[in-house]
């Protein structure tokens, strides 16, 4: 884009630094820009009234901002996954309608009046709660990310899916309202020798996992609200387990039962699935915590650079199951040189963190990378470093550094530089 020599004085003064980077797009264009010279319909006629949308929906111009699935990944959409459009979002909170969904037997459509939560097993008093019963326990609000252990799994052996929605979109972050699981377990009374909890879902897959009692008594929640409103059916309405920082599979949706025991149950989802096969044929299991990870969301394959050279704002997300993110580094040359990005917005433990990095793009090829470091000092590894330890068979727990190639024309592609 050619520089415009005749920028108007008032813009120069009024917009300060902003105007300096927007040379080609400001006052000089005004004279022949119909967006300025023509009266638009929305300026001329009154619009729909307050009763047009009793439950609000996004502008029709945002119709492309949707969850998407990858049809060839799974045999059918009932036991499948869709992905959060990370490249279209900002801040750290995922809107409810855009939270990725992972179901093993579709969405259970539950009448909350018919929903019960049972606690049985090694307890003094087996209990059954209705939803109304749960409302009489002290409530808490917490912002947490949920990441499926299989997030980025398709990228283990090399770059595959072209978009951060697909490579990293099995993550969302909302504010949950719920009751500490500890309060409910204490109400039932845990018997001596108990060490494990089995949460079970009311859906047709009866999703169940073995959860260590220590974690259950620490920060787990039984949640009924997300971002202030009832859980969405796809997220477990009316009740789900929240297991902060740990793999999504443990966050049982449509939660109907908690059994207390003295050993793990060795269920399907912790033996044949959600274990990590190593090069020597042995499998890691019980890899609960989600490792420190980050991704640049803009630019990315679905969000190319359309403005040409000059000021470019990188945006991205970082998270760690171990707590807060303390730093994110970014590289524009494939990991040779690193700069510290600017973290912005709330820094909450086990929540998404937002980072930005603004720089002047000279129009040459870029190899964008981000590397997160958490408060425990864990550093996000390269994919090669990960494969050196875990081999080539893994699917789950891929927190390797992602690379995007930005070509001179601004087109972005998923590539790998290890
Ligand atoms: N009852 C039940 N709970 C479930 C599942 C399920 O299929 N049924 N899927 C699990 C998996 S594998 C993940 S990653 C998370 C996904 O949560 P989300 O759909 O809210 O994103 O829910 C978990 N809880
Ligand atoms: Mo998952």
UniProtKB/TrEMBL annotation:
Keywords: Metal-binding, Molybdenum, Oxidoreductase, Signal. InterPro entries: Ig_E-set (IPR014756), MoCF_OxRdtse_dimer (IPR005066), Mopterin_OxRdtase_euk (IPR008335), OxRdtase_Mopterin-bd_dom (IPR000572), OxRdtase_Mopterin-bd_sf (IPR036374), Sulfite_DH_SoxC (IPR030835), TAT_signal (IPR006311), TAT_signal_bac_arc (IPR019546). GO terms for molecular function: heme binding; molybdenum ion binding; molybdopterin cofactor binding; sulfite dehydrogenase activity; sulfite oxidase activity. It is an enzyme of class 1 (oxidoreductase). Residues 285-402 form the Moybdenum cofactor oxidoreductase dimerisation domain. The lineage of its organism: Bacteria, Pseudomonadati, Pseudomonadota, Alphaproteobacteria, Hyphomicrobiales. Gene3D superfamilies: 2.60.40.650, Oxidoreductase, molybdopterin-binding domain (3.90.420.10). Its cofactor is Mo-molybdopterin. This is Sulfite dehydrogenase. Its EC number is 1.8.2.1. Residues 1-30 form the signal peptide. GO terms for biological process: sulfur compound metabolic process.
């Amino acid at each position: 884009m050619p520089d415009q020599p005749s920028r108007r004085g008032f813009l120069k003064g009024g917009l300060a630094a902003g105007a300096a980077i927007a040379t080609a797009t400001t006052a000089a264009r005004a004279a022949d820009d119909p967006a300025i010279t023509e009266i638009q319909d929305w300026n001329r006629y009154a619009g729909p009234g307050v009763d047009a949308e009793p439950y609000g929906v996004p502008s029709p111009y945002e119709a492309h901002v949707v969850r998407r699935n990858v049809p060839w990944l799974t045999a059918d959409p009932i036991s499948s996954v869709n992905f959060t459009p990370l490249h279209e979002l900002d801040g750290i909170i995922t809107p409810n309608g855009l939270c990725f969904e992972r179901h093993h037997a579709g969405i259970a459509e539950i009448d909350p009046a018919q929903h019960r939560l049972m606690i049985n097993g090694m307890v003094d008093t087996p209990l059954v709660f209705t939803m109304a019963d749960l409302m009489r326990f002290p409530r808490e609000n917490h912002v947490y990310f949920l990441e499926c252990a299989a997030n980025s799994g398709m990228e283990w052996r090399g770059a595959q899916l072209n978009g951060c929605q697909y490579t990293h979109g099995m993550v969302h972050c909302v504010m949950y309202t719920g009751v500490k699981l500890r309060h409910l377990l204490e109400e039932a009374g845990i018997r001596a020798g108990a060490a494990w909890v089995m949460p079970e879902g009311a859906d047709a897959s009866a999703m169940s996992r073995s959860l260590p009692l220590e974690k259950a008594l620490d920060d787990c929640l039984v949640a009924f609200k997300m971002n202030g409103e009832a859980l969405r059916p796809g997220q477990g309405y009316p009740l789900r387990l929240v297991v902060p920082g740990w793999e999504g599979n443990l966050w049982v949706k449509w939660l109907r039962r908690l059994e207390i025991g003295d050993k793990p149950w060795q269920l399907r989802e912790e033996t044949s699935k959600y274990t990590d096969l190593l090069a020597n044929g042995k499998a890691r299991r019980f890899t609960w915590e989600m490792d420190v990870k980050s991704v640049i969301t803009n630019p990315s394959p679905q969000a190319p650079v359309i403005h040409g050279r000059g000021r470019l704002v990188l945006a991205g997300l970082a998270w760690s199951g171990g707590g807060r993110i303390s730093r994110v580094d970014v590289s524009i040359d494939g990991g040779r040189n690193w700069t510290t990005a600017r973290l912005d917005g709330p820094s909450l433990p086990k929540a998404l963190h937002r980072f930005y990095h603004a720089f002047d793009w000279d129009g040459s090829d870029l190899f964008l990378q981000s590397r997160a470091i958490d408060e425990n000092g864990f550093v996000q590894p390269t994919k090669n470093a990960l494969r050196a330890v875990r081999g080539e068979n893994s699917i789950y727990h891929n927190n390797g550094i992602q690379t995007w190639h930005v070509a001179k024309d601004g087109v972005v592609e998923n590539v790998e530089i290890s």
